[in-house]
Design brief:
about 575 residues; two-stranded antiparallel sheet; 25 helices; 4 strands
Amino acid sequence: DLLAGISHTKHGNHIASQHRKKQSFLGSRLAGYVVSALHPSSLSFIRSMTPLERHAELVYAESLFEKALLGIVYSGDWLAFIKEALNMRTTITVYRQLGHYLDAVDNEALSKGDPYDLSIDTHFRSGVYLGVGMSHIILSLMPGKLQTLVELFGYKGDRQLGLELLMKAGGWSKDNDGPSIDAEQEGVRRSICDMALLIFHLVLSSFTFSGVDIPLAQKILDWNLARYPSGVFFLFGAGRISLCRSQPRRAIDYYKQAMASQTQYRNLHHVSYWEMAIAHLALGEVGESLECWRELEREATWSKAIYTFGMAVCMVECAKSEEERREAGKVMARVPGLRQKIAGKSIPLEKFVARKARKYAAQGGRLMLPALELGYLFLTIAHAPRGVIATKMLPDVKRELAKLEGGAIGGGENEKGEKRDKEENGYWDDYCLVKFLEGVCLRYLAYPDPDAVIDSEDPDNAAATVHDDGSPVRLLTKEAAEKQSGEAFRFVFEHGPKIELDHHLVYHAHYEYGRLLACQGKSGEAKEQFELVISGRTLEVGPSGRKVRYSMENALHMRTHAAHEALLANPNKAL
């Protein structure tokens, strides 16, 4: 699929190149560095193009961007990666030049009393908005150190400007419910601009805070769904926004509609299965999630290691007999051998699941709350209805905690008479993991996600008063939940040096504790927690000595940088 995509983008790039304005011979090019009007990147050079040549310039940049993205994903070595990165630089340069041209002619039109240059067709205009807007957003999402390096080459990402340009293509604003540009007036790339906005607000919001606007995404989605009621992408968006609003059951319905809307592209069904697997975990429905992972493992090819691990942990949690546990062990054993590389680098999440699979084997077929831990990485606790957290997730955590606390204090056990010995291998890793998950669950009980819709009539929230067996739930007050959450995170800090393998727990605990403090209005203390993670300092030293790297480090740094920036911009913002 990647090779076919690269072939098509090369062909498109070749066609566009044939219609671009030809640059002058070498002598004129050299003169262009002295006389700016002769330089191929000058405003006058773009003005001298015909409309066809300007469109060709735009399509050249678009196809080069697509080719670079596909090449980065496909390439297996750093040389190919650098080559495609240079193509990306060329793309951004062309987009910025076209953007400057559009600004210049619009300013001239404005001085004559027109709102913008009416001679520029909407298709070209929407394409420039798309390219310049996306380049700003992509650059703004880069880690701080990489941003500093990119700025040396003259490129800087302005996220707010990027979002405004994408909104401009459809005439969207935060103040109006509908767009100012209707279907008859739109450019051909308007729908792609809308899709890009939805991807930012609904998908990239998992890693950033600044600029995210769920109500705006809802307006864009409603308008496009009314226009394309069976549009598979917008049905995906409806599912995703339901998940962001802590309505996973509603999300599952939309993903099923997306699958039913088309049968031609089976790969699009895999997106639905992936999202449904996560949504079922957010509902505490491990068995239903297992069926989705099975479909992905059987058909999808993007990450066999993650699909297989997702299937394996659900099998472990659902196993009732020794035979089922052995079958789960066989599936788990396949995970490390299924890892792949992109641009010569391992995928962090695949490295994480491979380590967990090896740990499962080393511990004789045991992992602590593996489905809930995997779900945490996919934000299932953040997107779970409060009733599910209270009646399913927390009881599972408390059950394992009872076993561990029995081993820690030399007595006590859970309701099944099980307890753990603190001297056994991996004891403190498991204890810190359970306390960490307890802290996260309690934090979301005290402070639900800011975008969550808490509907008392939703059966998943109404269930907050009774357990599955009908017994009453002992509801915590907000004060008690946030107090116990903080205590759980501080437990991880205290006992982090005893961790043997799962060192990432300490760093994730500092991040989550910082978010708890931010919700409590303690912005100064929250900032300190975020800066501990960002600093790169070693926050724990285990029995094996100093750990230089830890699992999911880059993803955590992205989220922590985003939380830190959001806190600096608005100290009163709930994260």
